[in-house]
Design goal:
3-stranded antiparallel beta sheet; about 40% helix; globular; binds pyridoxal-5'-phosphate
Length: about 350
């Protein structure tokens, strides 16, 4: 039986079209700026986002780190959500590598940072204080449920930031999911940010890679830092070829993942012992909690689904599970998962 893997959209494999594009990719040395496929990916991304330039990088984590390094000086402070990927899951790279100090503020349930909280976190221009130089937003916001917010809010943050000579970076690992959810072309959604990084390798199914986007001068700084970090890749066009398919084709089908997430959430909400807030299900993620009196423990549920149904789910954190839909989670598979969950919860 095939595996049904709900742990993340990072488990997606390249599509047949991607394998074909990779096999036929025109290649060169990208450190010399001579890989035509990388150049095509970077050019097409910049055009699609209506920004000056783009840089193909190894991962979302590298894209975010390069943004911090290219925007900030060592000793600067950046404002980041306490529940943000950049704070929780990037191995402390902003502080340990970029040498910045992170000032965290709470992320709201809708994925945003409160404007008043940002205002209060901005440092005074005083010799004693670090210089606030960057605000980082995350859209979709993972920990809050894969929730998406629109351009109006981003515009307000950017206005506040720019008034204080502060830049705005968007951790847009899943920005195309956000754009799909708010029914807006991606360039309109991110118009007011100074930089954005997004992943080709998650719901968009490319095997490797992210893209950092921004002004030309910023991207050239980031390119130098990428080299410094050992991220100058030679015939990287073999990866960028899959990235081009991701960008051109896979960005158009994310509404299917969102519909399947809705289907799965609605089914799960009807099962006993499952506590699920349907308003949090806006894109391809479903967070829910198993009730304390459920007939199975969270660990037993993980083991049982794997052993009996070949369904892979992540271990729960504080009894909270996250299921993620993607290219390989079809409606048929959603029903298989619901049936398995129902059986497991009957005790
Ligand atoms: C996955 C993810 C990243 C980092 O991506 P990697 O490619 O795994 O390094 C950054 N931000 C968010 C919100 C993510 O979900």
């Amino acid at each position: 039986m095939d595996t049904i893997d709900l742990r993340s959209d990072t488990v997606t494999l390249p599509t047949p079209q991607m394998y074909e594009a990779m096999a036929n990719a025109r290649l060169g040395d990208d450190v010399y700026g001579e890989d035509p496929t990388v150049n095509e990916l970077e050019g097409e991304t910049a055009a699609m986002f209506k920004k000056e330039a783009a840089l193909f990088v190894s991962s979302g984590t590298q894209g975010n780190l390069l943004a911090v390094m290219a925007h900030c000086e060592r000793g600067d402070e950046i404002i980041v959500g306490k529940q943000a990927h950049m704070f929780l899951y990037e191995a402390g790279s902003a502080s340990s590598v970029a040498g910045v100090q992170i000032n965290t503020i709470d992320v709201q349930t809708n994925g945003t940072l409160k404007l008043d909280d940002i205002r209060a976190a901005i440092r005074m221009k005083d010799v004693h204080e670090p210089r606030t130089h960057l605000i980082c937003l995350e859209n979709t916001q993972n920990v809050m449920g894969g929730v998406a917010f629109g351009a109006d809010y981003i515009r307000k943050v950017a206005a506040l930031a720019h008034m204080n000579q502060i830049k705005v970076h968007m951790d847009g690992a899943r920005i195309f999911n956000a754009a799909t959810a708010v029914h807006m072309p991606v360039h309109e959604l991110i118009e007011d940010v100074d930089s954005i990084s997004f992943c080709l390798s998650k719901g968009l199914c490319a095997p490797v890679g992210s893209v950092l986007v921004g002004r030309r001068e910023f991207i050239e700084k980031a390119r130098r830092f990428r080299k410094m970090l050992g991220g100058g890749m030679r015939q990287a066009g073999i990866l960028a070829a899959a990235g081009l398919v991701a960008l051109r084709e896979m960005t158009k089908r994310l509404h299917e993942d969102h519909e399947n997430a809705r289907l799965l959430a609605d089914g799960l909400a009807k099962l006993p012992y499952i506590q699920l807030d349907p308003t949090r299900v806006q894109t391809n993620m479903i967070y829910f909690t198993l009730a304390a009196d459920a007939p199975v423990s969270t660990d037993a549920l993980v083991q049982h689904l794997k052993a009996k149904y070949n369904i892979y789910i992540s271990p729960a954190y504080n009894k909270e599970f996250r299921f993620v839909t993607h290219y390989w989670i079809t409606p048929e598979r959603v029903y298989m998962v619901l049936k398995a969950m129902q059986e497991a919860l009957q005790g």
